Amino acid sequence: MTTSLPASVDPTALQEILDGRWAHVRRDARENLRDPDFLPVYGEAMQEARDRVTRAAATLARSGRVGFGFPKEYGGEDDAGGSVTSVEMLAFVDLSLMVKAGVQWGLFGGALQLLGSKRQHDAYLRDVMSFDLPGCFAMTETGHGSDVQQLRTTCTYDPETQCFDLHTPHQAARKDYIGNAAKDGRMAVVFAQLISRGKNHGVHAWLVPIRDENGNPMPGVTIGDAGPKAGLNGVDNGRLTFDHVTVPRDMLLDRYGQVAEDGTYTSTIENETRRFFTMLGTLVRGRVSVGGSASSATKLALDIAVRYGDVRRQFAAPGEEREIVINDYLVHQRKLLPALATTYALHFAQEELVSTMHDVQTAVHVHGQEIDEHAQRELESRAAGLKVAQTWHATRTIQLCREACGGAGYLQENRLPHLRADTDVFTTFEGDNTVLLQLVAKGLLTGYRDAFGSLEGWGKVGFIADMVRETVLERTAARALIARLVDALPGRDEDDIPMLERGWQLKMFEFREKHALEGAIRRLRKNSTTEGMAPFDMFNDVQDHVLKTAQSHIDRIVLEAFVAGVDRTTDPAAKQLLDTVCDLYALSTIEADKAWFMEHGQLTAARAKLLTGTVNQLIKQLRPHIITLVDAFGIPAEWKAARILEEEADRQEAMAARDAELKAGVGEGTPEGTATDLEVAPAQ
C-alpha cells in the first residue's frame, strides 16, 4: 500500500470541521474558561474539592455561559445544542465542575424548564440560572435506578389542604447519589408516584425545598452525605428521604399532568406509559451531555498520551546511540491510533446527535410545535446508543493511555488517574449501559414487528411492551450518501473488492446489523411458540443476541456519521487525512470482530489476514500525522494540567543538546537511558 496522504496537514483545517455547528461556543470556551478554580487540584481533600467546585460554579454563573439552553425571556439563548456543546467544553477543564454544572443547569434547571409551567419559570428560573438557587435532581432511588417507572416514593394529594404529602415509605425508596444534595442544594426536583383520589397516575415531578436559607434541612427532610467516591470529589453527592413532607399543589411540575383543587387529574396524554416516556424524553439533553463529556475526557487522555509518546524514548536500534521514541513502535501505534480513529468517529456521531436534538427540542419548546413522537423516540434511541459507545470507549481508552505513559501515567499530577476515576461512573449514570443497549435493541425489534405476526407471548413482557414503537427507527441523516457508496460497489467476487472501498466497509457493517437483528427475531419467535416458556424467559434467553444487535446498530450509525463528516470537509488535505482515519475506524472495528465475520462467511482466513495487514499499513500511514490529529481537538495547553508534558518537553530539549554534543565529539559518558534501562518504578 502506498500513501497518498500529504506530507503535512494544517490542524486548524481539521479543527474547523470538528468544531462544527457550534464552533462559536467552543471558541468562546477556549478563550474565556481561564479561572484557576476551573482546573483540578491534585491531592486536595474532599471538602476542599467541593468548596472549590462550588466557587467555580458561581463564577461560571456570573460569566453568563450557563444560559444557552434556557429561554431568551429569562436571559438565555434558546440554544439546546449550544448548551450541550458548552458542557462538552467544560469537561476538558474539570469533570467535577462539568457534573456540578450539569446537575444545576442541565438536570435541575432543565426539568424546571421542560416540565414546568410559565408561572414556575417566572418564580424560579432566573435564580436557577444565577446559582442563587442551587438545586438537585432527585430521581434515582436506592432500590430503583434504571426502572424509574417503578419508583417507590409517593406524593399523595389531599383536597382539604390542597397540598401533596411527599413520603419515603422505606429505605429502598431513599433518593440516592443525588448531586448537589450533600452540601449546596436548597431545592430538589423530586420524582414520585402521583396519587390522587385513591388512584396512582404514575411518576411525576415536584419542586421541593430541602434546605432553608440558613442551610438547615426543611421539616421532614433528612439529608445524608454519600461520602467519598472513586472520583468526582468536587461533587457533593447525597441522600434524601421525606417523612410526610407537605408540598403545595402549585409545586407540581405540571406540563404533562395537572391536578385540580378537588384532586381531579387531567393530562393531554391519556396513556400513563406514553405520558411517562414523553416526560422523560424531554430530559434527553442530560444523556447527550454525558456522552459528549466522556468523549472530551477521551480526547484529553489521548492528547496527553500521544504527546508523551512522541518525546519519550526507550531502547536504541542496533548500532545506534539514540533511543527510539515510543510512538515509532508498531505496538504503541496499535494502542493509540485505532483509539484515536474511534474517537474521531464518535465525535462526528455526537455532532449529528446534538444537531438532531437541537432541532427536535427547538421545534417544540421554542416554536411551540406539537411533539413529533417518532422523531422523539428516534432521538432517545440514538442518544442511548451513543452514550453507551462513548462512555465505554472512554473507560477503555483512558486506561490504555494510562498504561501507554508507564509509571508517569499513574501519578495524579499527570491528569490520567483523575480522568480514569472521574469517568468511571459515566457507564452507569444517566442510564446503565447494558440497560440502554436493551432500549436500543427493543426499538429495532419493534420496528420489525411484522416479522413476528402477533405480539402474543414475548410481547406481553412489561419491559418490552413499554418500549413498543409505532415506527421503524430511521436510517441516519447520511442515508442517501451511504446508499450511493454501497450501490457503487463493483459487481465482482467479494474477495476481489479492496478493503479500502468505502462501500465494502459500509456493507460489512450493515450485514452484521441485519444478520444479528434477524437472528434475534428468529430466536424470539421460536421461544414464543415454546409451550410452557414464561414470558420473562422468552426474552432473557436471547438477551446476549439482543445486545449484539444493539452494538452492531451503534457501530453502523457511527460509521455513517463519520463518512458524512468526511464528505462535507472542504479542505482537500484535511479531507484526505480524515478519509484515512475513517478507513482505520472501519477496518479496526471489523478486525476486532473478525471471528464473527468469519463464522458468518464474510471473511475467509486469507482475507482476515489481509485485513490485519491493511490495518497495520493504515497505522503506518497515519503515524506522521498523529500529533496533528490531537492538535485538531484544540485543547488549550493550560487545560491539560499534566506535568508530564512540561517535563518531557524539557527533557527532549536536553537530550537534543546532548546529541549535538556527542555528534560534535564533545562530552563523555553514556547517553541517558540504555537498552537495559527498563522502567519498572512507578515514578522517576
From TrEMBL:
Residues 52-130 form the Acyl-CoA dehydrogenase/oxidase N-terminal domain. Residues 506-636 form the Acyl-CoA oxidase C-terminal domain. One of its GO terms (biological process) is lipid homeostasis. One of its GO terms (molecular function) is fatty acid binding. The keyword Flavoprotein applies. SUPFAM superfamilies: Acyl-CoA dehydrogenase C-terminal domain-like, Acyl-CoA dehydrogenase NM domain-like. This is acyl-CoA oxidase. Residues 281-445 form the Acyl-CoA oxidase C-alpha1 domain. It is found in: Peroxisome. Keywords: FAD, Fatty acid metabolism, Flavoprotein, Lipid metabolism, Oxidoreductase, Peroxisome. It comes from the Bacteria. Belongs to the acyl-CoA oxidase family. Pfam families: ACOX, ACOX_C_alpha1, Acyl-CoA_dh_M, Acyl-CoA_dh_N. Its EC number is 1.3.3.6. Residues 655-684 are annotated as: Disordered. It comes from Blastococcus mobilis. Its cofactor is FAD.
